[in-house]
Specification:
With 168 residues, the protein is of the alpha/beta class. 48% of the residues lie in helices and 17% in strands. It has eight helices and six strands. The protein has helices spanning 16-24, 48-59, 62-77, 81-96, 111-114, 117-123, 135-140, 158-167; strands spanning 6-10, 27-31, 98-102, 105-108, 129-132, 151-155. The strands form two sheets. A four-stranded mixed β-sheet has the order 4-3-6-5. Strands 1-2 form a two-stranded parallel ribbon.
Length: 168
């Protein structure tokens, strides 16, 4: 009710078009899969723990809830495969694996980090290259879903992220 979002149960991973279509309508697709014990530190597949404890808090944050929808709307309207790949990478390095700077230092906001104890511990170490969030760079940055992330991007604020995305 705070932001007008709903959650829809989905049986598993959706293709990008369907996934972004849900976001464009302010509906978050929540999987009904739960990871096994051997995947507690990290799983490449989204599960209901990731969706409920990672994404749900962010879709009640008004600024970030709007950003989710903007990403979805841009993807639904996109007809260029290269731009669509850029959108998926922006999603990956913000919504899933984003860091934000605040007066106390770097903080995690990315849901892929939050829902993984291993990734949480790894993300703030010196083993990870942390770069300023420049969307052209995010859109070109490859990622690997099978391993902890080696490169992460830092935003200064959700307002700045949204303004940069509008410009991009």
């Amino acid at each position: 009710r705070l932001t007008g979002w709903k959650i829809a149960r989905t049986p598993g991973l959706l293709d990008a078009g369907d996934f972004f279509g849900y976001l464009a309508r302010r509906v978050f697709p929540c999987t009904d899969y739960i990871r096994g014990r051997n995947e507690l530190d990290y799983t490449p597949a989204p599960d209901c723990f990731h969706d409920i404890f990672g994404h749900t808090p962010m879709i009640v944050h008004p600024r970030f809830a709007d950003f989710y929808q903007k990403l979805g709307q841009a993807a639904v309207a996109c007809r260029d495969p290269a731009v669509m790949e850029g959108l998926t990478r922006i999603y990956w390095f913000t919504v899933e694996f984003g860091l934000i700077r605040n007066p106390g230092g770097l903080r995690i906001y990315g849901n892929g980090i939050i829902s993984s104890s291993g990734e949480t511990q790894h993300s703030l170490t010196d083993k990870v290259t942390k770069l300023p969030c420049v969307l052209e760079r995010l859109a070109a940055q490859p990622y690997d879903i099978w391993h902890f992330q080696e490169t992460l991007f830092v935003i200064e604020s959700f307002d700045a992220l949204e303004a940069d995305f509008d410009r991009w």
